[in-house]
Specification:
The protein is mainly alpha-helical. Helices cover 52% and strands 7% of the residues. The longest helix has 19 residues, at 17-35. The N and C termini lie far apart (58 Å). Pfam families: Phage_connect_1.
Length: 114
Protein backbone atom coordinates (compact mmCIF):
# COMPACT_ATOMS: atom_id res chain seq x y z
CA UNK A 1 0.00 0.00 0.00
CA UNK A 2 2.89 2.35 0.75
CA UNK A 3 4.30 1.87 -2.76
CA UNK A 4 0.90 2.61 -4.33
CA UNK A 5 0.56 5.77 -2.24
CA UNK A 6 4.04 6.94 -3.17
CA UNK A 7 3.28 6.33 -6.85
CA UNK A 8 0.09 8.38 -6.68
CA UNK A 9 1.91 11.19 -4.89
CA UNK A 10 4.90 10.96 -7.26
CA UNK A 11 7.35 10.41 -4.39
CA UNK A 12 10.49 8.59 -5.51
CA UNK A 13 12.52 8.41 -2.29
CA UNK A 14 11.94 7.14 1.23
CA UNK A 15 12.22 10.46 3.09
CA UNK A 16 8.49 10.63 3.80
CA UNK A 17 7.87 6.93 4.43
CA UNK A 18 7.26 7.41 8.19
CA UNK A 19 4.61 10.07 7.59
CA UNK A 20 3.00 8.09 4.78
CA UNK A 21 2.98 4.90 6.86
CA UNK A 22 1.31 6.75 9.74
CA UNK A 23 -1.32 8.18 7.39
CA UNK A 24 -1.99 4.67 6.03
CA UNK A 25 -2.22 3.25 9.55
CA UNK A 26 -4.64 5.94 10.76
CA UNK A 27 -6.74 5.73 7.62
CA UNK A 28 -6.93 1.93 7.90
CA UNK A 29 -8.03 2.21 11.52
CA UNK A 30 -10.72 4.74 10.60
CA UNK A 31 -12.06 2.45 7.88
CA UNK A 32 -11.86 -0.53 10.25
CA UNK A 33 -14.11 1.38 12.66
CA UNK A 34 -16.60 2.04 9.88
CA UNK A 35 -16.80 -1.56 8.63
CA UNK A 36 -16.29 -3.35 11.95
CA UNK A 37 -13.38 -5.55 10.83
CA UNK A 38 -9.85 -5.38 9.43
CA UNK A 39 -9.71 -3.76 6.00
CA UNK A 40 -10.12 -6.48 3.37
CA UNK A 41 -8.05 -6.40 0.20
CA UNK A 42 -11.03 -5.34 -1.92
CA UNK A 43 -11.38 -2.10 0.12
CA UNK A 44 -7.69 -1.16 0.22
CA UNK A 45 -8.25 1.31 -2.63
CA UNK A 46 -10.31 3.38 -0.18
CA UNK A 47 -7.37 3.56 2.24
CA UNK A 48 -5.09 4.67 -0.59
CA UNK A 49 -7.56 7.29 -1.87
CA UNK A 50 -8.21 8.75 1.56
CA UNK A 51 -4.48 8.69 2.38
CA UNK A 52 -3.79 10.84 -0.69
CA UNK A 53 -6.35 13.37 0.54
CA UNK A 54 -4.88 13.38 4.02
CA UNK A 55 -1.32 13.78 2.76
CA UNK A 56 -2.33 16.67 0.52
CA UNK A 57 -3.96 18.35 3.49
CA UNK A 58 -0.87 18.23 5.74
CA UNK A 59 -0.26 21.58 7.46
CA UNK A 60 -3.87 22.54 6.68
CA UNK A 61 -5.50 20.07 9.11
CA UNK A 62 -8.69 21.26 10.67
CA UNK A 63 -9.42 23.80 7.94
CA UNK A 64 -12.53 23.66 5.80
CA UNK A 65 -10.97 25.94 3.21
CA UNK A 66 -7.63 27.54 2.43
CA UNK A 67 -6.95 30.63 0.36
CA UNK A 68 -3.69 32.28 -0.67
CA UNK A 69 -2.92 34.74 -3.47
CA UNK A 70 -6.09 34.05 -5.44
CA UNK A 71 -5.92 30.27 -4.99
CA UNK A 72 -8.72 28.73 -2.97
CA UNK A 73 -8.99 25.13 -1.76
CA UNK A 74 -12.00 23.63 0.01
CA UNK A 75 -11.69 20.34 1.92
CA UNK A 76 -14.44 17.76 2.40
CA UNK A 77 -15.85 17.48 5.89
CA UNK A 78 -15.31 13.69 5.84
CA UNK A 79 -12.52 12.15 3.78
CA UNK A 80 -14.58 8.97 3.33
CA UNK A 81 -17.64 10.73 1.81
CA UNK A 82 -16.61 9.90 -1.76
CA UNK A 83 -16.42 6.19 -0.84
CA UNK A 84 -19.46 5.95 1.46
CA UNK A 85 -21.64 4.13 -1.08
CA UNK A 86 -18.95 1.46 -1.55
CA UNK A 87 -18.49 1.14 2.22
CA UNK A 88 -22.24 0.77 2.76
CA UNK A 89 -22.51 -1.89 0.03
CA UNK A 90 -19.60 -3.86 1.48
CA UNK A 91 -21.04 -3.73 5.00
CA UNK A 92 -24.52 -4.75 3.81
CA UNK A 93 -23.13 -7.62 1.73
CA UNK A 94 -20.96 -8.94 4.53
CA UNK A 95 -23.62 -8.58 7.21
CA UNK A 96 -26.02 -10.52 4.97
CA UNK A 97 -23.46 -13.27 4.42
CA UNK A 98 -22.77 -13.45 8.16
CA UNK A 99 -26.47 -13.71 8.92
CA UNK A 100 -26.96 -16.51 6.40
CA UNK A 101 -23.87 -18.53 7.33
CA UNK A 102 -23.17 -17.72 10.94
CA UNK A 103 -26.51 -18.52 12.56
CA UNK A 104 -28.58 -21.68 12.82
CA UNK A 105 -32.14 -22.17 13.85
CA UNK A 106 -33.24 -25.36 15.53
CA UNK A 107 -36.89 -26.27 15.88
CA UNK A 108 -37.96 -28.48 18.75
CA UNK A 109 -40.93 -30.77 18.69
CA UNK A 110 -42.66 -30.36 22.05
CA UNK A 111 -44.51 -33.68 21.58
CA UNK A 112 -41.45 -35.81 20.98
CA UNK A 113 -40.06 -37.81 23.86
CA UNK A 114 -36.38 -37.45 24.51
Amino acid sequence: MLDDLKTLLMINDDKKDKVLSLIIKNTSQSLKTKIGTDVPEDLEYIVTGVAVKRYNRLKNEGMNSYSQEGESITFEANDFDEFQTDIDKWVAKNNEAETQVGKRIKFLNPYRRV
